[in-house]
Write a structure and sequence with these properties.
Blueprint lengths: L11 H6 L6 H4 L1 E2 L6 E2 L9 H4 L3 H13 L13
């Protein structure tokens, strides 16, 4: 988010995963690069590795696969 001049805010991936959080359409933001949309991380969570194993994360990734030709995940290494 820093590279593209975005703020983390309450949305982002973590916000979409939170119950009652932001919707995916509200959390994805266009970047200054044509054809490139971004989903910032959102607020920090207690156990970031754990959120990748939830059914909500699988649903978000499935929805992203349906909307985009390519989905790139930029995340720190995790041994979860």
């Amino acid at each position: 988010h820093t590279l593209f001049g975005l703020t983390v805010g309450k949305g982002g991936f973590a916000g979409v995963l939170a119950a009652g959080g932001a919707g995916l359409a509200d959390a994805v933001v266009p970047s200054p690069v044509s054809g490139l949309d971004l989903l910032p991380c959102g607020p920090r969570v207690a156990d970031p590795g754990e959120c990748w194993t939830t059914p909500a994360a699988a649903a978000v990734l499935a929805e992203l696969r349906g909307r985009y030709d390519w989905v790139l995940l930029d995340a720190p290494p995790a041994l979860a």
